[in-house]
Amino acid sequence: MRKPNAAPFIHCEDTVNTLYSDILVSLLPLVIISIVQNGLRVLFISTLSMLAGWLAQCAGNFVKGRGFSAGLQPAITGLILALLCPVTVPWWLPALGSVFSVVIIDVVMNEFYENLFSPPVIGWLFMLSIAPGKMDTYPMVGFFNSFPIFKSEFSFATSQSIAQSLQLKIKPQFDMVQILTGRVPGGMGTTCIIVMAAVMVFLFYRRAVAWQVTMSMIFAAAVIAVIFNRTGSGALYSILCEISASSYMFAAIFIAGNVTLSPKTSIGRVIYGVVIAVIVMSLRYKGITEYAVIFSHIVANWISVLCDQVALLILTGKAKSLKGHAGRENYGRLLS
Amino acid sequence: MFIFARKGVKFYQKVNINTEIKNSARPEFARIPLAALGDDEMYLKVGPNELISKYQLIAQSNKKGLYVYSPFDGEFISTELLRIPGIGKVPCGVVKTSESPQIERPFKEQLPEYDFDSLIEMVRKSAVIDEVDGVRLFKKLEDLKNREVQAVIAYGVDDQPFTAASTAVLLNFANEVAAGLNLVAHALGCEQKYLCIKKNYRNAKLFTDNLQGIQIVNVKGKYPSTPAVKGFCERVNGVMIGVQALRAIYQAAAYGLPQVSVVVTVWGEGIAEPGNIEVPFGTPIKTLLEQCQAFGTIERVIAGGIMTGKTAALDSPLYVSQTALTPLVKTREYKTVSCIGCGRCGSVCPVGLNPYYIMGAVKQEDFARVSQLGAASCIGCGCCSYICPSCQPVTEIMKYCRKKAYDYKKEIAYNA
User: Fold this and answer.
1) Which helix (H) or strand (E) segment is B32 a member of?
2) Which of B273, B302, B332 is the last residue of a domain?
3) Which of A1, A3, A10 is the mutation pick for testing B, counting most B CBs within 10 A?
4) pTM, full prediction
C-alpha cells in the first residue's frame, strides 16, 4: 500500500484489478453464448483452464518467495485459451496450454524480459503444436449440444470452418446472419461477432484494451478483404468471413488489444494493428489459415517497440506544427 | 472563441462553491515571507519591536528590485526561517498583528497611462506576483523587452479540483481585472486582449459589459489547461498573466497599493464552510481552517491544489502562488503493483511525453536518453500518477527524471 507523499493526492478509480476484471467480465458473455450453443462442456473446460493458469501463477510466485497468490491475469489467459479451442478438444488441452504459457511467459521469461510475448499466443501455439488435429476439427453447430462433459475422446459430426472453406477456395456455406450470430464452426467463444462487437465497445469505453490496435486490425483486414475478395460474393460478406475466420476478431480484441504488449503511442498502435492484419491476410492468401493469426502476433510482439519508434518518427515530422511542444520536439533527437 | 485541452485527465466535479470573497480573520501572529532576505542586496527596513503599519515597506533589495510590504498593522518582532510549501525554507518576518483602522484610500479618477518602462517600475514597486507561476511580474515583463508582443492574455482558469479562486475574482472584481488588463495592453502596445476562463462561461457573460474590447476565450477539455493556453499564447504571440496579478496592477495604479494579499479557495474534506478568502501574505494556514470551520482530525493540508500542491504544516504561512488550500481528513492508500506497461501515462501527458520509456531509461541510469526523451519539459501536472492503474508514483519519478535531464544538459553545455 502506498500513501502519496507528493502530489497528486487523488487517484482515478481504475487500477490493475479493475482493468483485468473488466476483461474477465467482458469474456463472460462469450462463455454464456458458447454454453447455449455447445452445452456445459464449455463451462467445465473454461473453468479448468482458468484454474490451471491461476494455480500455475500461484505456484510460480510461491517458488519465487512471493507467497501463494496471483492476480486475475493468469485466469484471463486460461479463459482466452479455452475460448480459442473447439468444444471437442480434450478437456486437458486448454488447461495444459494455460499452465505452459503462464510458466514460460509469466513465471520464467518475465524475470528477464518484461512483456516480450503474449501468454495466450504462446499457449495457443503450444496447443496447435501438440494437438493440431484436435484444434482445427470443428463440430456441427447446434443448440445445447450434448457433448460429454468429462470425456477427452468421443465421436461427433464435423463441419468445415469458414477459414477452411476459404483455404480450399470454396464459398463458405453460411449466410451473413449465421456469421454475425456465431452459428458457424470455430473456437468455443470466438464466433459470435455481435456479442464480440458489444464487449469491444464496453472495453473501449473502459479503456481496458488498446482500441487503436483492435480497430486498425479490423479495418485493415476489411480493406484487404474488399480488394482481394476470396469468397466470390459481395464485399460485406467477404469482410465478415475474413474477420470471423480463425478467431481473428477475438484475437484483435483480447490478444492484440492487450494494453501491456501493444505499443505505447497511438500512431504506434495503429501501425501495430495494420502490420498484424497485413501478415494475417498475406499468410491466408498463401494458404496458411489456423496459424496465421498466431504467427502474426508473435512477429508483432517483436516489433512492438519498433512501431513506437516509427510513430515517433512520424511525430517528428509534425514538430513544426507543434511549436513549443518541447516533449515532441525532442523525439527527433531520440531517433537521430 | 474556445481552446480545447485535448490531452490530460477529466474530473467529474460539480462547481457548487459560493463565489463570494470573504476577508480573512486576523491572526495573532503573522509570518511574512521576505523572499530573498539573507542575500547581500536585501535588507530589512524595520527593526525588532518596531511598530509597523499596513502597506509599509519592511524589506527591500535595490539591486534586484524586490520589495516586501507588510499586510498588517502591528509590531515587527523578529525574523525566522520557515518552510513554505512549494518554495522551501525562506526567512519570514514575524509580526504581532493589531486591528487595522479603516482608511479611505484616495482613488485616481483617471488611471495613469503607463509606457513599458514605467509599467515595469510600477509593478516592481508594487511587488506584484503572478499567481499562475509564482514569478514576480516585473521579471516576466522584463523578459518581453526582446520580444514583440501582440496580445495580453488574462488567465482565469480553475482546472484543479477544489479550486475556484480565479472564478471568484472574476465574478467579484471583473472590472478591476479588465482595467488591469487594459493597462498592461496599453503599456505593451497590444490591441488584442483575451480572458481565458473555464466552466464559468455563462457566469462570464454576466460581466461582459465590464470587459470592453476583451475577447473571452472558453477553455474546454481536460486538466491541465495550461499547455493549451500557452500554445494559444504562442499562436497569438502574447503574454499570459493571472487575473489576481492583473487586479493587483489595477489597485497599484488606482490606489497606489502594493500587493499584500491573495484570494485562496479553502475547500475539501473536513471543511464545513468552503469558500474563497482574501488572505494577507503570512497568514497561518491554521487561521483559515478555523475560519472555514474545519472539523474532525485533519491528517494533512495541501497548499496549491490537490494535483500539484505540497503538504503544508498548520502554522506555515500562505504565499501568493498558493491559491487553493485543501485539507484531507484521511489520505487514501493505494495498492501499488509493478508497472504493467499499459501506456496510459503517455496517453494523458499534456506535453506529449512518454513516461513509460523515460522511466525505463532512468532505471538503466541512461540519463542521455532521459534527456533525449524530453524529460526536462515535464510540467509536473500529476496526470500520469493520477491515471496509472498500477498506482505508481509516476509524477515523483518524472520530477526526478526532469532534474536528471537538466543536470545532463548542464553537463553537456559545460563540456562543450
Assistant:
1) strand B29-33
2) B332
3) A10
4) 0.87
